[in-house]
Amino acid sequence: MKISPQWVREFVDVAVDDRRLAEDLTGVGTAVEGISGAGADCVFEMEIGTNRPDAMNHYGVAREAAAVYDLPLRELSAFSSRLSATGRTSAAKAASSRGSDGTTEVVPFPNSPLPSSPFPSSPFPIVVEEPELCPRFSARVIRGVRILPSSDKVARRLALLDQRPISNAVDATNYVLWEMGKPTHVFDMDLLAGGKLIIRKAKNGEKLKTLDGVERTLSSEDLVVADGKNPVALAGVMGGFDTMITDRTRNILIESAWWDPVTVRKSSRRHGLHTDASHRFERGADFESTVLSCDLVAELILESGGGELAGDAIDVMSRKLDQAPVVLRLSEVQRILGGNLSTREIVHILKKLGFGLIPEGQADAQFYVDVPSWRLDVEREIDVIEEIARLHGYDKFENTLPAYTGTVAELPHAAMDATLRTRALALGYNEAISLTFISHADAERFSSASVLELENPLSEEASVMRTSMTPGMLDMLAWNLNRDSDNVRLFEMGRVYEMRGGERIEPGSLCLGATLAAVKGSLPVGGMLEKEPGAAEYFRCFKGDVENLLAAFACRELSFDRETAEYFHPGRSARAVMDGAVVAQFGQVAENVKAERKLRQDVFLAEIDVERLHGMGLRTVRFAALGKYPAVERDFSFVFGDEVGFEAMRRTVMELSIPELRDFKPVEIFRGGAIGAGKYSILLRVRLQSDEGTLRDERIGQWSSQIVAALQGLGGVQRV
């Protein structure tokens, strides 16, 4: 957001130049990201935290500057230039509030030297049907006003902040918004049907044409400001088109209210309408600023367009929004920040920031801290301590380590996780981190686990804790592909979240992701291979990466089957089983998923159950001497039906328990030609070797016969 340092200087006499002011504000957390222009045209580009709506305006920044330099801050006040004998001023010195019985009473401002208004008290009727969502609604009425261009000062300051001047009445609301941070709105009072305003929930299907010219369909979840017939504003978000200020406007109603942040945020998102007003109301506005903001807007309108205040300020307050005092223990301040802050310094810092302190007990060295109305973000003791630290200056604290009496112990699975990471990095994968939130649709699509709902989700697309890492990996691959980064290999290690047996569990998981271009790049073309590899070869290459990771863990047997999830390609995916436990599924992503996620090329995924690998432990590396005697290889060519996979062949041959059998693997697969439909020819190779002597033909022949008989038992037909 943009802030004019010259405007800030109207409220505090800062002696330093603009550049030094920017540096000092940044030092206390009110960050100035850039400076443009010079002199009266100088503008700060500021980055204000979402929890600090009080600093999203010039007076809030001036308050910070006054605290930094320990200077007095001028109070914001309305009608300061109109304290003359005119009849309008006394009307500006009073406010009215609604009592517990629902009536309206006029309450003079404190220290008012004037007895009462010369105008009859004629408050505009305000009915608040939703007091929990609108605990305070203030208003002012101006009659006989002329709608003109704003003064040069107002127009120039708004233009400096990239705000387009519209008219004196509308610009007055924008000017006050940027001056003190309180959104207000002005209605053409003559266009308000029924001569009253009602704050209520909208009716389902009700229509409201907002100031941007869009007709919006409301729901019963929306809070609106309505006249006697229809909604005239979406509360805290935007006013209505039909009651806006025009050149024909003569009578104006100024409105300033405190709206429930959650209600404003939901309406803003529901209608896709983010405004300067909703941005501030969503984060919490100053409850005590409603009357003052009305008065400031009224003052600007009266100065530029004439007219007269009609009656007193209207202030309908159904409940007081008081923040509970925070207990501050000096011992806790010293424990967290160190021992170089005295009690006097602590009190002085907090008072400069507008906090009040009431000693609770000298024995315990505690205070009650009264939080100012504009600091809704301060709720706990640690929040107050943070305020002390940032204003004192983080650079002034000594560099010390926190006290710790325990010992540093490595997590039980640290070595296994480090091994997985090291191997993944060695294979060319880059570690990435995705959001732990996914949508309901993704949770149902990529996992069968019971989900953990978020109480306050960021959006519908991030409403549950992830039950699978696949959605996040697909998003990261798509993000890279959409930016012409084709050769991508990523892995993520973390936790997934699910409900099991009524309890929350967080098992570890590892996800690999690779684009087709990346897999292709790891295969040799030409020379070693006679032709361009096909889809099956790409799958086997990715399978090799998964096997490399799993090879680090101890198991008696690693096998593969085809029982994978439906979001994998049915012919190019597999499931890894170690000692009877499923530890991974991997393969090419199915075509329908590729289309839904708008992936520009085929991608490969692997989901590895890290929790089960932890239970197996790392494989112990042992030395084995090279064989002294030569190995013998024999090839066997068989025809099998498609229902028989290599895993069944491998298991059958291994069950023969031939001690000299060192390896059994497929070499070549052929379909078509003389091979009938539904069948395939496979060339199998065995490697035999003895540690005791050279193998003789008789023994080799016996074992070969056993292998042939076992494969024939599976329905295989040996080819001669």
Beta-strand proportion:
15-25%
Q: What is the number of E strands?
A: 35
Task: Say what oligomer this is.
Answer: single chain
CA-to-CA gap between the ends? 81 Å
Spans of at least 5 consecutive residues whose pLDDT stays below 50 are 81-122
Question: Can you give a write-up of this model?
Answer:
With 720 residues, this protein is of the alpha+beta class. It is elongated, with a radius of gyration of 37 Å. Helix 5 (152-160) packs across helix 6 (168-180) and helix 6 packs antiparallel against helix 9 (290-305). It has 21 helices and 35 strands.
Can you summarize this structure?
By secondary structure, this protein is α+β, with helices and mostly antiparallel strands.
Write the layout of secondary structure elements.
Layout: E1 2-3, H1 5-8, H2 18-27, E2 31-36, E3 43-47, H3 58-69, H4 88-91, E4 94-98, E5 104-108, E6 126-128, E7 136-143, H5 152-160, H6 168-180, E8 185-188, E9 197-201, E10 207-209, E11 215-217, E12 223-226, E13 231-234, E14 238-239, E15 252-258, H7 261-270, H8 276-281, H9 290-305, E16 308-309, E17 314-317, E18 326-329, H10 330-337, H11 343-352, E19 356-361, E20 366-370, H12 381-392, H13 414-426, E21 430-431, E22 437-438, H14 440-446, E23 464-465, H15 470-481, E24 489-495, E25 498-500, E26 503-505, E27 508-515, H16 516-521, H17 535-550, E28 558-561, E29 568-578, E30 581-589, H18 591-596, E31 603-609, H19 610-616, E32 632-641, H20 646-654, E33 661-670, E34 679-688, H21 697-713, E35 717-718
Parallel strand pairs: 6-9, 21-24
Antiparallel strand pairs: 1-3, 2-3, 4-5, 7-15, 7-16, 7-17, 8-15, 9-12, 10-11, 12-13, 13-14, 18-20, 19-20, 22-23, 24-27, 25-26, 27-31, 28-29, 29-30, 30-31, 32-34, 32-35, 33-34
